[in-house]
Design brief:
The complex is a heterodimer of chains A (about 475) and B (about 170).
Chain A (H helix, E strand, L loop, with lengths): L1 H8 L7 E4 L2 H4 L3 H9 L14 H8 L9 E4 L6 H7 L6 E4 L13 H16 L9 E4 L11 H17 L4 E7 L4 H19 L4 E6 L9 H17 L4 E4 L11 H17 L17 H14 L5 H11 L16 E5 L5 E6 L18 H16 L8 H10 L1 H9 L19 E2 L10 E2 L1 E4 L19
Parallel strand pairs in A: 1-2, 2-3, 3-4, 4-5, 5-6, 6-7
Antiparallel strand pairs in A: 7-12, 8-9, 10-11
Helix pairs in contact in A: 5-6, 7-8, 7-11, 8-11, 9-10, 9-13, 10-15, 14-15
Chain B lengths: L26 H4 L6 E5 L8 H12 L3 E4 L6 H11 L3 E6 L4 H13 L9 E5 L11 H8 L3 E4 L4 H11 L7
The chains are: A alpha/beta (about 475), B alpha/beta (about 170).
C-alpha cells in the first residue's frame, strides 16, 4: 500500500493517492476482515476499520501532504464505520453517495443507505472543527458504469452533491463517467457544471471525469485510445480531475508499473490537448442544451417532492421519477431502458416515470432485446478495438519502461500482477478498484487519477488504486 | 418485503410486456397454463448484474415470465422466493468465480426444503477462478442436484436455450 502510494506520488505528473478498502470492509463484514488479517491472508484492499489508527497513521506518515492528498474509496452503502475509522488519521476525503453506492451492487434497502450516509456526511463534516477540510465526491455520475443516459447521470451527481451539502459538507466534487460519444459527453459535462453553479454556488465544488467504466477494449491500443479520449475530453471541458484506467483493465488487476504508466500517458495527452480559450467551463449565457434541460427537469422533479432531500430521494425512487436502466435493486422501479443510436449517442428507450421524453426513432419498438443489450454493452470496446490491433503483453510494458524511468522503479517495487484467475497474492497490494468486476471489464471500476494542470484547482483527486480482486 | 428485482406487482390488467420489466402473472389463477415462470438469481457473494439482465431478456424472448432477484442473493432469500413464486425453473447465473462453491452450498439449502424437492435448478456462468479448467466441476454440480450446468463457452447459450425449450409447460398445482 505505502509503496504504491509513493510510486504514484513520484510520477512526473500531478497525481493524487487512493486507498481502496477490501471487499469485506466494504460490505461491513468486519469479522471476516479481522479473521483474514489475523491469519495473514491476503486481502484485496485496505482494512481501515480493522487496523488500529496508529497503523494507518504510520502507513501514511510522509506520504499524505498538501501536495499529495489521499482519497479513501470503498463502495459501501453503509460507510459510517469507515468514516469513523478515517478520523484521526489525516484522511479527510472519500467518495460515494446514498444512491450510487446502494443501488448498483447489492440489496441494502435505499432507506437504510440514505440514513447511514446522512450520519456519515455529518461525521465527516465535523472534521472541520479540527482545522481539517473534509471532501466528498459523488459517484452518481457513474451509475452502473454504462448505459445510463447522461441526463440522469448529471441529475444524480447533482442530487448526491446537494445531499452532501445538506448534511454539512462544504467541499464536494461531482463525478461523470465517459460514455459512448465524446460530443454527448462534452455536452453532459457542460450541463453538470452549469447546474452545479446554479445549485451549489460558484465555489466549493469541482468536477471529476471517470474514464469509461463499462466493458473495456481488449487490445492495448484500443485501451490507450479510449484513455487518450478521456484525457482530451477532460481538458476540453475544463474538468479539474480525471480518473483513468490501465491497458489491462479487460484482463486482470494491473501492477504498480501499469498504474504509473496509465497516469503518465494521461498526463501526456492532457498536456498536448489545447485548452478552451475562455478558461474552464462553458460560457454561462450559452443556450441550454438538451442534456441540461433533461437533467434540470429531473433534479427539479425530485426536489419538488419534499424539502428534505433524504425523503425526496426515497420518494423519487418509489415513484419511479428516478429509475436507473437495467438496475435490479428491489428499490429501483425498473421501467426504464436505453439504447445507442446510429450516431453512437446513448438514448432513452423507455422512460418510465422520469420527466423526460424517449428518443425512439419513429416506427421502432421501444423494447430493447437481448441482442440490442449485448451490442450496447460491447459498443465501446468493439469501437476502440476496431481501430487497431496490438496484443498487450510484456513487450509493450518493457518499451514503456525504457521511456519512463519512473516505471522501472515502480516495477521494482511492485510484484507481477496476480490476475483474478491465479489465486495468488501480490506483494504490493496496489491494484485496480473494481466494484463487482471481473477481468472482462465491469461496471463501477475506477482507477488512477490525474489532477489536470488547470490553474487554481482545489484539493481533489485520487490516484493509485487497490483492487477488489476477483 | 419485496423479493422481486425489476418487476412490478400484478395489476388489475396485464401490463404490456417490456424487456426488463415483465409483470409476474400467476398463471394458474388467470388460466394460462402455458407460460412458464423462471426465477433468475445469483449466489450470495456475487454483485454482478449484467449477466442477470441479459439472461432475463433471453428467457423472456423464449416466451417465459421472469422473476429476477438481482445481485447478492442470500440462500434463504432464494428459498423464500421459490416458495412465494413457485417457478418452473430456477436459473443461477454467477460470474465472479465463486459460483461452484456457493452453488453447492445453495443446493444443500434448497435440498433441505421438502416443498422444493421437484424444482429444477440449473447453474451457469464463470463458476470457478481457473477459467473453466476444472473438468470435474460440471459432474460435481450435477451430482449435487443441479439439472444442468452451463459454464461460459461459445456453445453454452445455445445449450441453455435448448434446455429451456424442452422444459415442460407450467403444471396445474
Amino acid at each position: 500500500m505505502r509503496e504504491g502510494l509513493l510510486a504514484t506520488r513520484d510520477v512526473d505528473a500531478t497525481t493524487i493517492g487512493t486507498i481502496t478498502l477490501d471487499s469485506y470492509t466494504r460490505v461491513g463484514d468486519l469479522g471476516a476482515a479481522a479473521q483474514a488479517l489475523a491469519a495473514g491472508e491476503g486481502l484485496n484492499g485496505y482494512p481501515i476499520v480493522t487496523h488500529p489508527r496508529q497503523v494507518t497513521g504510520d502507513m501514511l506518515a510522509g506520504v499524505v501532504s498538501e501536495d499529495f492528498p489521499v482519497q479513501v474509496r470503498h463502495g459501501s452503502a453503509r460507510p459510517l464505520d469507515i468514516i469513523a475509522a478515517m478520523t484521526g488519521t489525516r484522511l479527510t476525503a472519500t467518495e460515494g453517495g446514498p444512491v450510487s453506492y446502494c443501488l448498483p451492487y447489492g440489496r441494502v434497502p435505499l432507506r437504510e443507505s440514505v440514513r447511514n450516509w446522512s450520519r456519515s456526511c455529518e461525521l465527516l463534516a465535523g472534521l472541520e472543527e479540527f482545522g481539517l477540510r473534509p471532501h466528498l465526491e459523488t459517484f452518481g455520475g457513474c451509475m452502473l458504469g454504462q448505459l445510463c443516459p447522461p441526463g440522469e447521470l448529471v441529475a444524480l451527481s447533482l442530487l448526491e452533491a446537494l445531499f452532501f451539502r445538506a448534511h454539512g459538507l462544504r467541499s464536494v466534487s461531482l463525478s461523470y463517467a465517459q460514455q459512448t460519444h465524446p460530443g454527448q459527453d462534452a455536452e453532459a459535462l457542460a450541463a453538470l457544471r452549469r447546474l452545479a453553479a446554479e445549485l451549489l454556488g460558484p465555489t466549493g465544488w469541482h468536477v471529476v471525469l471517470y474514464a469509461y467504466m463499462g466493458v473495456f477494449p481488449l487490445t492495448a491500443a484500443g485501451a490507450r485510445a479510449l484513455m487518450d479520449d478521456a484525457a482530451a475530453l477532460a481538458v476540453r471541458t475544463g474538468t479539474e480531475r480525471l480518473i483513468v484506467k490501465t491497458v489491462v483493465e479487460s484482463m486482470r488487476i494491473p501492477t504498480v508499473a501499469e498504474n504509473v504508466q496509465a497516469l503518465l500517458a494521461a498526463a501526456g495527452t492532457a498536456r498536448r490537448t489545447p485548452r478552451p480559450l475562455d478558461g474552464a467551463g462553458p460560457v454561462p449565457e450559452a443556450s441550454p442544451t438538451e442534456i441540461y434541460c433533461e437533467a434540470r427537469a429531473i433534479v427539479e422533479a425530485v426536489l419538488d417532492l419534499d424539502d428534505d432531500i433524504d425523503r425526496a430521494l426515497l420518494e423519487a425512487f418509489d415513484r419511479g421519477i428516478l429509475d436507473i436502466p437495467y438496475c435490479l435493486h428491489p428499490d429501483n422501479r425498473g421501467r426504464t431502458s436505453s439504447f445507442i443510436d446510429d450516431s453512437g449517442r446513448l438514448r432513452w428507450a423507455e422512460t418510465g416515470g422520469l420527466p423526460v421524453r424517449p428518443s425512439v426513432p419513429f416506427g421502432k419498438s421501444p423494447t430493447v432485446t437481448s441482442s440490442d443489450l449485448q451490442a450496447a454493452l460491447t459498443y465501446v470496446s468493439r469501437k476502440y478495438d476496431g481501430q487497431a490491433y496490438e496484443p498487450c503483453g510484456p513487450t509493450y510494458l518493457e518499451q514503456q519502461e525504457e521511456q519512463h524511468p519512473a516505471l522501472g522503479r515502480a516495477a521494482a517495487a511492485g510484484a507481477p500482477s496476480q490476475g483474478p484467475g491465479s489465486g495468488g497474492r501480490p506483494s504490493v497490494p496496489v491494484h485496480r478498484t473494481n466494484a463487482g468486476g471481473t477481468h472482462r471489464g465491469t461496471a463501477g471500476a475506477d482507477g488512477d487519477a490525474v489532477r489536470l494542470p488547470s490553474g487554481d484547482v482545489p484539493w481533489t483527486g485520487t490516484s493509485e488504486t487497490d483492487a477488489r480482486g476477483m | 418485503m419485496s423479493v422481486q428485482g425489476a418487476l412490478s406487482p400484478v395489476g388489475p390488467e396485464p401490463a404490456p410486456v417490456r424487456s426488463g420489466a415483465a409483470p409476474v402473472r400467476d398463471d394458474v389463477e388467470h388460466g394460462d397454463a402455458r407460460r412458464r415462470r423462471v426465477l433468475v438469481t445469483t449466489v450470495s457473494s456475487d454483485a454482478h448484474t449484467w449477466n442477470l439482465v441479459y439472461l432475463q431478456k433471453v428467457i423472456e424472448e423464449l416466451g417465459c415470465d421472469v422473476v429476477n432477484l438481482g445481485p447478492c442473493v442470500p440462500d434463504d432469500l432464494l428459498v423464500s422466493a421459490c416458495l412465494e413464486h413457485r417457478p418452473d425453473l430456477v436459473v443461477v447465473s454467477s460470474v465472479n468465480g465463486h459460483g461452484h462453491q456457493d452453488g453447492l452450498r445453495l443446493m444443500r439449502t434448497i435440498a433441505r426444503c421438502s416443498e422444493l424437492s421437484q424444482l429444477p435448478v440449473v447453474i451457469g456462468g464463470k463458476l470457478g477462478i481457473d477459467g473453466g479448467a476444472d473438468e470435474d466441476r460440471p459432474a460435481e454440480l450435477l451430482r449435487a442436484g443441479f439439472r444442468g450446468v452451463f459454464e461460459d463457452s461459445p456453445a453454452s447459450l445455445g445449450q441453455f436455450r435448448s434446455f429451456l425449450a424442452r422444459l415442460p409447460s407450467r403444471a396445474e398445482p
